[in-house]
Amino acid sequence: MTQYRPQTPPAVLNLLIANCVVYFATMLLDTEHIYELFALFPVGSPFFEIWQPVTYMFMHGDFSHLFFNMFALWMFGRGLEQELGTKRFLIYYFVCGIGAALVQLGMAQIDLMRLGHMSIAHMQYLCTPTVGASGAVFGLLLAFGMLHPNATIMLLIPPIPMKAKWFVIIYGLLELVFGISGRMDSVAHFAHLGGMFWGWLLLIWWRYQDRKRYRY
Fold this sequence. Notes:
mainly alpha, two-stranded antiparallel ribbon
C-alpha cells in the first residue's frame, strides 16, 4: 500500500498557516498595539523588544506583502524541505530570518547616527518598524539557486525563462543597488541581502560538515 504524502510538507504548511493567521489576527485586533509588540524596531526605540527578530517574520504590512512572500515560500520551500529535511529546513528558515533582522538592526544604527541624535528624523526612524518574512524567503531563494543552479525559473514580469543561478545573482545585485542608492527606501533591501548572506554561510557550513562526516 502506497503511503500518502501531502504535496506541501509540514514545515512549509505550518509556516503558511502561521503567517496567514497572524496577518488576519492583526486585521481583527488592535493592529497598532500588536505591531508595537511584535514588529522589528531599531535598538534604542521605546518599542524594541528582544523577541522581535523572530516575531517580525510573521507580521506583514498588507495583503500583497503577505501574498508574495507566502507564494515564494510555497514555490521554493516545498522542494527545499524535501531535500534538506524538515529539521534542517526550519533551522535554515529561521537562521535566514533572524540573520536578516540582525543586519537590519545594524543598518538602522548606521542610519540613526547619520540622521543625528534627537533630530525629528531620528525620532521618526526609531518608531519605524520592519515586518515580513522576506529575509527568510530570500534565503530560500539563495538555497534554491545554489542547489539547483541550472533549474529554469519562469519570471512573471517580464514572462521569460531564466536559470536559477542568474535569477539569484541579478536579484541580489538589484537589492544591493537599491540599498546603496536609497531607492525604494520603504523596502529593507539590506535585510533581504542579510537573509541571503546568512543562508549562504549556513549552506557552506553544512556542506563542510557533511563532507567531514562521510570522509574515510
